[in-house]
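User: Predict the full complex structure for these chains.
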Amino acid sequence: MIFNDPARVAALTPQNPFDRLDDGRPKAPDDLLERLKLVTNDEAWAIIEKGHNYQFQFEGDWLHLHRDVPLVGRAVTCAFVPIRPDLHEVVQGIGLGEGRSDGGQNTWVIDTLERGDVLVVDLFGKIRDGTFIGDNLATATRARTGAGIIIDGGIRDFDRVEELLDFPVYCRGTHPSAIYDVTLVGVNIPIRIGNATVLPGDAVLGTREGITFIPPHLLEEVVTSSEETRQRDVFGKMRLAEGTYTTGQIDRGGWAEEIEADYRAWLTSEKGTN
Amino acid sequence: MIFNDPARVAALTPQNPFDRLDDGRPKAPDDLLERLKLVTNDEAWAIIEKGHNYQFQFEGDWLHLHRDVPLVGRAVTCAFVPIRPDLHEVVQGIGLGEGRSDGGQNTWVIDTLERGDVLVVDLFGKIRDGTFIGDNLATATRARTGAGIIIDGGIRDFDRVEELLDFPVYCRGTHPSAIYDVTLVGVNIPIRIGNATVLPGDAVLGTREGITFIPPHLLEEVVTSSEETRQRDVFGKMRLAEGTYTTGQIDRGGWAEEIEADYRAWLTSEKGTN
Amino acid sequence: MIFNDPARVAALTPQNPFDRLDDGRPKAPDDLLERLKLVTNDEAWAIIEKGHNYQFQFEGDWLHLHRDVPLVGRAVTCAFVPIRPDLHEVVQGIGLGEGRSDGGQNTWVIDTLERGDVLVVDLFGKIRDGTFIGDNLATATRARTGAGIIIDGGIRDFDRVEELLDFPVYCRGTHPSAIYDVTLVGVNIPIRIGNATVLPGDAVLGTREGITFIPPHLLEEVVTSSEETRQRDVFGKMRLAEGTYTTGQIDRGGWAEEIEADYRAWLTSEKGTN
Amino acid sequence: MIFNDPARVAALTPQNPFDRLDDGRPKAPDDLLERLKLVTNDEAWAIIEKGHNYQFQFEGDWLHLHRDVPLVGRAVTCAFVPIRPDLHEVVQGIGLGEGRSDGGQNTWVIDTLERGDVLVVDLFGKIRDGTFIGDNLATATRARTGAGIIIDGGIRDFDRVEELLDFPVYCRGTHPSAIYDVTLVGVNIPIRIGNATVLPGDAVLGTREGITFIPPHLLEEVVTSSEETRQRDVFGKMRLAEGTYTTGQIDRGGWAEEIEADYRAWLTSEKGTN
Amino acid sequence: MIFNDPARVAALTPQNPFDRLDDGRPKAPDDLLERLKLVTNDEAWAIIEKGHNYQFQFEGDWLHLHRDVPLVGRAVTCAFVPIRPDLHEVVQGIGLGEGRSDGGQNTWVIDTLERGDVLVVDLFGKIRDGTFIGDNLATATRARTGAGIIIDGGIRDFDRVEELLDFPVYCRGTHPSAIYDVTLVGVNIPIRIGNATVLPGDAVLGTREGITFIPPHLLEEVVTSSEETRQRDVFGKMRLAEGTYTTGQIDRGGWAEEIEADYRAWLTSEKGTN
Amino acid sequence: MIFNDPARVAALTPQNPFDRLDDGRPKAPDDLLERLKLVTNDEAWAIIEKGHNYQFQFEGDWLHLHRDVPLVGRAVTCAFVPIRPDLHEVVQGIGLGEGRSDGGQNTWVIDTLERGDVLVVDLFGKIRDGTFIGDNLATATRARTGAGIIIDGGIRDFDRVEELLDFPVYCRGTHPSAIYDVTLVGVNIPIRIGNATVLPGDAVLGTREGITFIPPHLLEEVVTSSEETRQRDVFGKMRLAEGTYTTGQIDRGGWAEEIEADYRAWLTSEKGTN
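Assistant: Here is the predicted structure of the six-chain assembly.
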């Protein structure tokens, strides 16, 4: 009841074009995620919001460690509420019944993470006593996922977490206190992070600008559209350097038919190479 | 999957000492709710927080219509997130499949309300385009419940809703826009309203000071403790007027044994009368 | 250059369907403004935003004196900036050259107000040293306009201004200081008040909920649409009382053809009476 | 060391023109305080800020119970900080050594209040666990002072405190929790309440607009200046009613010499009557 | 009517000591602007605020790209309001009638920029849908002006704009959305940027600390005063190194007459060299 | 009366285990302060809050210059209020009577600083006109203390202060204005900095995460506990490298008795070396 049932997760995400993970989440392919690292939030937004009217998939204004390391992966979502003893007892009973650690409900989720997962935590912006990870759990999360973490709340051990140079962390603040007085109410349920709505299995794209949560059925379009933009840029600059076309022919909205044909031919030949 | 299953609602609230409603919520007795109308938030807090360490059951800072009408009832909870077309389609499909109105997801919940229910809505503080009720839905909610409503979001038709003098509304603001761009993600699930955690079936107590969400298993203690305070006050003033005891004997922390006995005897005789 | 030229004001408002005042502002007829007093902000919004896609014409969150007195009238706009001595000297020179008072740039505008005007002041939310009116200027404004005032800034003499019971004031706060360190940069220019864009001659509608600034070419539709709603309500309740129709026939989205015909006939006969 | 020494209080307020209370505070005469009830914050500001350049003596933005009851009296100041066990032990030791109650450091100050005192409490805006008074201490404060209270923090028992209709309370919010986790660091020391600096013995003036803290040496000027304004108003209206002078002669900045003489003569004769 | 008339711009800035640009703005000489790059905001403030009582010419708290590149230039001002269809149509009509691009009103201003201009944009702090520039317009602005840009609003394409290492951008935030739902109401009119009042042709000085908008008639004094401070520093250190004077003679408020004479002689000889 | 009496300072800090400075402050030994540089805020918090229930000794959210330089030292506290002419005159009289500079009350405290002191200034968050130090006073503070400064207020000369690379400054903002309109009310009194309570002589620990104010009697425990953590880390890694123990033996909560004995033996031998 806390960890969402795989069948329910699947029912929440019926447009998923990919395989699913054991927990029911869409499994965006590693290859697409790798290629996502070169996409900007603006390119993603253009497809998601302008193309498909998803208006609430971006969130900015983070305390952002390691801002030059792009964060990509598959979202694992979880949500907490302020502690309530009767509810806490129910949750704790369920968790222990499922064999989970009695070391803290935050570790329950971390213990399930796999390579390529990005944990997205709704801690309702709590910073003091809302520090989802410190030094040790940051190290553990990094080891399990090879990715980073997104916390609408705080972290502790700031100085030492900052030393994990390849571990991008997006949080709202830092405090030396431990996580305290909160109860986990769901894993892999729909959550809200600021102005963004996140579902389990969303493809996460974090850059210096902020984070976009990409619905899986839009991921390929986001990636290929960005790549096409970059490809055309390469082709255009090459032909300009060769003197084949003029700036006036290349630096404009749409190319003439023959240049377009040239581009497509080049693209095909390149694809063999890549 | 949107309206929580009665069995799951029951599993969330195992300490419920009362019967349950058909939807699984604890059914605090009408009599206790009626008596709750005379309790203050401070008396409730003393039992819940000081006595049982529930620290996150009160929320203040409301735009409060009809502040002199106490609000009591059984909580129906629901939560929205910013709209997300794929999720919205899933939710809409489930709702229509269950025969719910296509007039707006907010009406789904209102259509299920019964006498004594208090709807508690997590709209993440959205006011513009976050107006959960206007004139008509306020009238409908009032007719179905005979109680009021609590919205962490906005209302519209302020002037006309204010004319419903016996309908207490707690919201965060008012705007003429209609509710828009939000998706319902759960009914009768645990929700957070500001700093308070609310479960389905909580006994709601709203006064001029704010709102306390009382776990059902603590309701009777809250009510009887408040009543005892008031009874002792009546008894003490009566005996003072009769000249039986002095102020020094009555206005102190604990009464002498004989006065205590006198009080208990009076209480028994009174109970026959009431 | 500070008071906008009448020709420019006219050029800003080419869709005005009414006569113009001497200063170029659209002159919404007194009759329409009087009828506007019965309209709610929600009815106005339905026409302006839903019907015509004007999304930024409402502003709420006011410190609102005399909230039960509706405020209607024709907007006179003005805008201030933080003082800048060189600019202030230019403005002061222009004003004195036009024969305006040396008693304060705020009085320049008040001295030009006429019956039915509603002054709308952009003071960028300044409260201390941003008190556009006190006791005396409130009295003067009330005497000249017979309406009220809207200030995105402060007022002083709160207690005494509150005694002017028929003078609705919408402001952001109160402070005993006088207006100070600001420079007037325009009268009857487009201004922004919170999230609303206001043009000179807009029909102002202020109620307990907030303020809508109605573009003149939409005023008649706003008023008549609201009236039709109210007329149908009267007719429906009358026929229900007479037992002519059932609740099921009346309390629904659209009426049957014959009831519609009955309504229109009644409306015509009523119009003779009114 | 917590309750400031009378000699030090006197040294802080060397310009005091009045007697002193036993605790060293300036003792503004009852008569002046009574007359202060008719003064507005704006009149006080005109003398204090415009006349004497005291810019930080007013504070607005209060949750204000019983706004129609003016609050006047002599300030008793006190300040708290977030609890610190070593400091708390020091303070507690001093207090108990002075024979103060072990019921809470907030009661220490309340127990010393006298008729005409207005307690001004710096609780750094804390509301939850920052409720300086509830039902009982409000009643006690009212009984001792016959005045009201100013708290830069919270209160509890809101509904019942609101029933004390002649007890003006200025606070920042309300919460059912008790005061907790704070340490008293000084009584009758200089404190800051929002943007205002308050000294022990200041004459407090609270109205619907907010609060002015008047340095004692400026009190008489504040009161008499306000009275003269009101006297001239009475005289002017009387002479206008009698037809002695015209509106043009009376409604202007300064009166002609002969009217001024007439006024002064009337004033003298009136003073005998009053 | 949107682009302010050159004659009106000149009338707004009568104290301008320099030539004017074709659009009427004061043309601060390139040489002075170049020398301004070494001035700090603190030195500018000392002249402008302390020396001439201009209190509202500085604004801090920016999201600041390329903080180590000083930003200097001549201000081009513009202001937007939330979109209003009738006004937008008027503005669009005027712009197209003047032959401006139909690609967005933000490009109208960018298309007029010249070398040394610094565009200052009042977008009322809007970030989502308030992104005045992205990758392309940033590149265009940089190419036209050789300077930077100041936006009281947002930018998009953050990652790529950040790659333009010599293009200082001061904005309030970043979002992947495009600029949307705003209407341009004026170019080269007086605007307010936070607490600062800006006029067309102001000399802009942006450093890590924030931005000062320097009225042209104070520019030379700002520059030479800063230079003198620096010159005296060089001279003093040189003479100390030579052993001519002691620290006590140099490190004090004013120099003795003979040192002063020595300094002035040195200064004259240096000027020939520079 | 402004500079707290040494005897009073001592009475405020009776648990001090160290010598005292002439002004009465606890004198934490240089050696402990030096070793404190390697401690993190999280380690300090674990001792202070978890071990001894001091909950309000940490403050984050700073504008932090030179974040990589740890700040340690002995706190000198001081507090300001908004200026009040009568109080200012008293304070100024006292200060001049004590032979202090007439150059500004902020210099009074700076003039008393000694090596190892960290000045902690309560300027109630004021930034404009609240700039406690600029270029010169920063240089002076650095020269006297060899440490840094903590200001709940602003600084000026940002660019030049930032050039003092070994001088950590924690403040709330930057502005070119000078400090103005404030009055010093106490030196070495208890103060509140955000959520932290600071006493004179507290051991200050500032890192990238924020600042902990450590009560002197807890300092040694903080330092040694941190050192033990680090020692065990060194020992464990060494023995793992030597192959003496396995990861399973070392990476766990408590070590087996024989490993513990080995560790203690190594520790003793090491201590000779260090």
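The mean pLDDT of chain A is 94.
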